[in-house]
Amino acid sequence: MADYYSPTVVAPEIPLNDMTQLERLILSGVFNEDVAPGTAYFHSECGPGDILTIDAGRLRAVLAQSLEIESPCNGRIASLLNERDASTDDLPDDVDIDLTETKLGWDQILRAIVKRSTTLDEIVVTAAFTCSKMRSDGFGGSVMRITADRIQYASTVDMLETMWNDTAVPADGGHETRTRLESAADTAGWDSFTLLLMIARWLDNTGHANALLRHFGELAAAGYAVE
């Protein structure tokens, strides 16, 4: 039987003052936490934890210390505690927190931290996918970039698909395509600036801009010259 692992690191270290007590409690359950003066470094040897079990009394106390600061943790944890208190069964000592829920993912917690931080512009979570056996599907990795505005994610499969979809330099050097573009521009009465703007808009609308820019960067790095 194969065992799968996803060693993960969170960079940079997060200032302790940027986290609420509740956020830090949850993140330290998701990841391992190494504390330096004023900061916490989160990482995981096997992969982030998705299900946490935390003592209800401790959770309630930490929630009370965190309510003054807006966080995606507050409402969800309060709801879980209320559900526990309203239970007709014997009250459990612990509360189970499912971080696979869209309402409370650890990525959403990290995004909330970036949004309120005065020192962090982004948090990058890098993971390696490894396996105890040499399986073709057992290795790879991923990167997640978290900013105040959005969460971006790409796996090695995503990167490979981008490579598959990248258009190589045509055998004719692109002259046929250039001729067709110039013909369309002549018909429409566009000058070269307008033609370039139309191409740029199409790339943005179809989501191909990054792939083209990356392709141009690779050509430039390789010293490619138009013949």
Low-confidence runs of at least 5 consecutive residues: none
Report the order of strands and helices. EEEHEEEHHEHEEEHHHH
What is the SS-derived class? alpha+beta
Task: Please summarize the sheet with the most strands.
Answer: 8 strands, antiparallel
User: How many domain regions?
Assistant: 2
- Quick check: average pLDDT? 88
Q: What radius of gyration results from the CA coordinates?
A: 25 Å
- Please tell me what the overall shape is: elongated
Count, helices: 8
N-to-C terminal Cα separation, in Å?
55 Å
Beta-strand content bin: 15-25%
Query: Which bin fits the share of residues in helices?
Result: 40-55%
List the quaternary state of the chains: single chain
Strands, count: 10
Word description of this protein:
- The protein is α+β, with helices and mostly antiparallel strands and 227 residues long.
- It folds into 2 domains: 4-155, no CATH class; 166-221, no CATH class.
- Helix content is 43%, strand content 22%.
- Strands 1, 2, 3, 4, 5, 8, 9 and 10 form an 8-stranded antiparallel beta sheet that branches. It has a two-stranded antiparallel ribbon with strand order 6-7.
- Helix 1 (21-30) crosses helix 2.
